[in-house]
Design brief:
single chain, 270 residues, alpha/beta, 4 strands, globular
């Protein structure tokens, strides 16, 4: 499937010969103009060489390079994905839509269990209830499985949660707050980042201090395999027993109970 998609894209770009020379001759503007249906999502290709199997399975078997790992999530990852439907349909998710959307995503039986675990009464809106559930299912709990595998195999693991729910927004507004949505941490690590089509917005003084700390953490890790350094709050290694997580907000602190907060035991057996 991935190979077919690549061939189709080359043909769409006018490179029926499928050569790299032809593809490299195309301008960025041409590629953006013709990308269209090829922008639906990234696909990992298990080709037997570069990626010999599914990543979660390989990590569980200890079949990966034992190097230091820095990984984490944003507190409200899925709010951006939920917004795409609202922006497309021009209407927010309703209470009636909520169980139907879960059933369409997970099947009727599992959808009902998720609706019971994430009742509408526990969130300000159906969109936020759905986003909360999806953030755990798609981001946090798969990350936790990878953390466990890496830590078990002896790799130092450093885990973060980006939690600035007042992060500058470069998305179109919707009926609920985006909070610390998908990609919003990037503007703190790469100053000036504002999404593919968003408008650059300045960080506040406190946010700039958080940005400075995050840049130092990431740079230290890239240099030494350890994010810690002079003038930074200590960032302990993640362990399965304590699940130490560096909470990146206006006040940086180390939290615990990563999986409990995100109902990962529920998701792991669903």
């Amino acid at each position: 499937m991935v190979e077919t998609t690549g061939s189709d894209f080359a043909t769409t770009m006018g490179c029926e010969d499928q050569t790299a020379v032809c593809m490299r001759s195309k301008s960025v503007d041409e590629i953006i103009a013709k990308a269209g249906r090829f922008l639906n999502g990234a696909v990992r290709s298990v080709d037997g060489t570069i990626l010999p199997g599914q990543m979660q399975a390989l990590m569980a078997e200890g079949k990966f390079h034992k190097v230091p790992i820095l990984m984490g999530n944003n507190a409200d990852e899925w709010t951006w994905f939920t917004s795409l439907t609202e922006l497309d349909t021009k209407k927010p998710m309703t209470g009636e839509d909520y169980p139907k959307t879960l059933a369409a995503t997970f099947g009727a039986e599992r959808g009902a269990k998720i609706a019971a675990e994430y009742p509408l009464s526990g969130s300000p809106s159906p969109s936020e209830a759905f986003s909360l559930a999806m953030t755990s299912w798609f981001f946090y709990c798969p990350s936790r499985r990878a953390m466990r595998s890496a830590s078990k195999s002896g790799s130092p693991v450093y885990v973060f949660e980006f939690n600035d729910r007042k992060a500058s927004q470069y998305f179109a507004p919707v009926s609920y707050p985006y909070g610390a949505a998908h990609t919003l941490e990037l503007q703190y690590i790469f100053p000036g980042y504002h999404g593919a089509a968003g408008v650059k917005k300045p960080l506040s003084a406190d946010q700039q201090m958080l940005s400075n700390a995050m840049i130092k953490y990431w740079t230290n890790f890239a240099r030494t395999g350890n994010p810690n350094g002079k003038g930074l709050p200590n960032w302990p290694q993640w362990t399965r027993t304590k699940e130490q997580t560096q909470m990146l907000d206006m006040k940086i602190a180390t939290g615990t109970e990563f999986a409990k907060d995100r109902k990962c035991d529920f998701w792991d057996i669903l």
